[in-house]
Structure formats: C-alpha cells, structure tokens
Amino acid sequence: MDRREFMTGAMALAGSVAMPALARAQQAAEISFFYPVAVGGPITKLIDAYASGFAGENASLKVNPIYAGTYQETIVKALTAHKSGTPPVLSVLLSTDMFTLIDEDAIVPFDEFVKTDEDKKWLASFFPGFMENSQTGGKTWGIPFQRSTVVLYWNKELFKEAGLDPETPPKTWAEQLAFAQKLTKRDAAGNVTQWGIQIPSSGFPYWLFQGLSTQAGSILANPAGDKTDYANPAVVEALQYWVDLAQKHKVHPPGIVEWGTTPRDFFERKVAMMWTTTGNLTNVRTNAKFPFGVGLLPAGKRLGSPTGGGNFYISKKASKAEQEAAFKFVRWITTPERAAQWSIDTGYVAVRPDSYETAAMKKYAADFPAALVARDQLPHAVAELSTHENQRVTKALNDGLQAALTGTKAPQKAMEDAQAEAERILKPYR
After folding, report:
1. Is residue 151 within 8 Å of residue 347, measured between CB atoms?
2. What is the pTM (predicted TM-score) of this model?
C-alpha cells in the first residue's frame, strides 16, 4: 500500500442576483490534494489524468496532486501541515486514520455538504462494508476511494507441477498447509528453492494478520475504537497458525517477510501462493509470466478478510469554497463509471455495487473473472483495525506479531504484551 503528494486548485462560485444573501463573489479555491503512492502500477499517471479530466469539465476548478509517499508518511505530513495551519484541502489517507483525524480536529464530516436528494443517494451508494471505517457517531468522515481486501494468489503452473488442480485453491487452513507442503521445494542440501506460501509481515503485518484472526473467529477492536482484544484465545490461535507455517512446517519463509518484495518473489517463482492486497491485481496481471489464480482467503472457523485502503478526507481548516470544491471533486471521481474504471486500471475494489453493472466492468470481468473475487469476499469482510491513537495501538500489535514470527516471544506472551500496551494507550478514551 503506497502513494506520494498532491496540491493546488482554483474555484469560482457564482452567486445569485435574486438572492444576494446567498450570493458569493467569484473566488479562487486552491485545492491541495495529498495522495499516497505505494502499490505497484502507474498510479500517479492515473491520478494526474483524473485531475486533468475534472479541470476539463469544471473550467473554474483545478486540482493539483502532491504525491506524499507511503500512507504512514502521508498522514504524518497531513497532520504536520494541519498543525502549522496550511493543511491540504483534500487527502487520501487510510480509512483507519479516521479516529486520529477526528481527535486532531483535522477534518469535517461530509454530511454538511450533502444537501440534495442526489447527494443523499450518492452517499448511500457505497458498499456497507467500506462505510464501517468511514462513519462513526452518526456522521460520515471519509468517502471510500481506493479500497481493498486481502486475497490469495497462486501460480497455476506450480500447482500442476505439484500434482494439484491448478483451478482449485485451498479452501481451509488445513488445505492451505497441505498445499503449501506439496509446493515447497528443496535442493539436495535441504535449502528451500521455492516456498509454498508467503504472508508479508512488514509494512502492514496487522492487516494481513487480521485475515487470520477474523478466520479464527475474533474481532481485534470494538466499533468505538476504544478497546482491543489482542489476547483473545482465537487471536493467539491465529498467530500460532502463522508462526507454525514457518517454524514448525517450514513451508513459509522464516522471520519477517517484506510487503514490497512479496509480489516480486511470486513473479520470480520463489513462492507458489501469496497473500496480498487486491490492489496488486493489475500489477500481478501485468508482471506474472504464467497463469495465476485469485481466490478468497482460506477459511478457519469462518471465511474472512479485513477491508483496507484509503478514503477521501476534507480539511477542517480549508475555506468553505475550498471544501465545496473538494466535495465536488470527490463526487465526480466516485461516479459508477469512474469507480469502475479505477478498479479496472488498478485492481482496487470498485467502491459501489452499481459500478459492477457498468458496461466497462461487465466486459472486463467477462475477460478477467479474477476482478470479481474481492467484491465477492466483501460479505465476509470486517472493518480494518482502527482505534483512537491508531498508529500507537496498531504498532503494539505489529511489534507482538513480529516478536512471535522471529521467535523472540511465544504467540501467547506476544499477544498478552500487545494487549497490555493497547490497554494502557486506550484507557483514557473510555
């Protein structure tokens, strides 16, 4: 998950002569737009094209992207700019940053811009699963844009070589292990030349792990974002399964597996199955020189994946004209047709069901059925881990996961310590 920085804009609002109280002088609204860049693909060119297209249809408005780095770098830059008094008017930040942005008084809810019946219809058009990380306290603070789930990718040629049906992925944890054992190759000296499975544990370990913990039947945090459940026995069970893939069964690389290099390892046939974001779908389709499959994550006690990815947020410190211009751009870029095209171009999930009814998406899905997997997984998806003090609370979990995966702590101890730290941070919010 990555991105870079975005800035500028100009907007004119013409007032009504008949209603001077509501009239506004024509004015420029500088729309600075922070955009994070992290997933492979020509993302910046696509965003530049959208900014240009919007300007072409709205002569008085201009959007200038500032590509701000990773999601983590972008939220830091956005909050730093907020505190200095010159924040970007619009930002794409993680959906899980919602509580942090509210606590910093950095954003305004979209509800105050939703005035017409068409506006209300638009706000109700998004997948409910994506709105779980976009709404709280009866208000809508973020609008889904580049959203995702975790999915399973597999190399069909390597499946065939291992005597597995190339069209049938593992459906359960037990099958996932059994398949990974058949897919792991070693040379004469016992060194692994091909891993059965790879689940990244750098960058976003909590997010990948949330697939496992959900499948084990646990939810990591409450909807109010003020309590975690890291030491739940089901969470420990999920972590033990992940640890055992590497340390006991030796079908998964030991230690920390890099987020960014996992797709490359897949392309180079160093791994036969990988978990990663559906946002990598176009990247995989472009770079995998072999037939591959995409499927739902295997089930433990249940099917499950977290949602993920970024939302649009509007700055509280922007002028009213700038905020209105930003809202207009967000509405423009999230039409069914544009949401469908964005999904086709990037691999992210189209954020509204009616996008899948567009002619472009129907044609694309007919040619490439894998594009529908993430959508089909949404009924089993849960909200991505999000709390107050989100980065610190998530770091407590990430540290625990990495301690267990590197063998520094047993899974039970790692999760108990993570829960104790999260409790210390969150207690003042209850």
Report:
1. no
2. 0.85
